[in-house]
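Q: What would this chain look like folded?
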Amino acid sequence: MSAGRDSAVGEQAPAEAAKAVKSGEKVRKAATRKKSAATAATGTSAAKKTTAAKTTAKTTAKTAAKRSVAAKKTAAEKTAAKKTAAAKAPAKTAAAKKTTAAKKAPSKAPAKAAPVKAAPAPAFKDESRTAMVRRARRMNRELAEVYPYAHPELDFRNSFELLCATVLSAQTTDLRVNQTTPALFAAYPTPEDMAAADPERLEELIRPTGFFRAKAKSLLGLSTALRDRFDGEVPGRLEDLVTLPGVGRKTANVVLGNAFGVPGITVDTHFGRLVRRFRWTEQQDPEKVEAEIAEIFPKSEWTMLSHRVVFHGRRVCHSRKPACGACPIAHDCPSYGEGELDPEKAKKLLKYEMGGQPGQRLRPPADYPGQPAPPLAGR
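A: My prediction, written as structure tokens:
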């Protein structure tokens, strides 16, 4: 019986051991599963944390970008506001000054409305040659009505005095020449007298006209030539006059037209400027200007045409600011509008007798409507 029990016990022992082993394996597997579950949970938590971190970073970046854009817009708006304020400031200051000035100034009549500019003269761009000639002759007739007293604006009593005065008129005004020549001709009334003049004394007499050394040389030269070649007389031919020292075509035409009655066109600064402004010619060279103008007008008109155009240039049609609003031939002028158009302002630009001022001659013709020029102070 003892042996049987021992045998039964012996059989039970391995079975229990096997159970114990299995139980241990189960425990280990359970532990392993717990570890795996814990690891998985840890990984999931880490992934969630990473995703959350990325989301937070993106949100932060977007927020920063929005703040940057908002900051830029705010800065731009502030800059624009400053510029607007700066622009308004001068206007406000000017308005305040005007208001202050208006308060200080005595009460005046209401300001006149700005004058309405007259309609411009018709275009002359495609004007035919025939139309231009007709217009030019019409302008000459109208100038004759405005300046019936037109004359050479140099004082002279004979051809010699006119010749000398014209030579002296280069690079100066006729007024200054007229103020200078009385003393000159009192000292040297004839070519013979002037040819024998002391150069230094002659220079001193004509000093007010400018370039007195060169002009004195010309006067001495032409006086000597008149004495030696023309018996002390001024010749009445263009070909002879231009051989004299200091005498060109312009001077010769002045002498011929006004001392000898020989028609001639005098192309001085004023004449050349106006005929180009009138579009009678486009030439710049004086001889070419003379030739083209001579083809437009009858020979009998040449001398007086020269005086009328020069008169108009000195009184109305000034070089820098012509008085277009007071011009009697504005309707025929292609350059109308280059100068002052307001009639009242234009009247203030008129000179000599047209503006109520003395003329250029100390001894003007009897029909001259203006006042004579005053003599040079100290002479």
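The CA atoms of residues 203 and 216 lie 6 Å apart.
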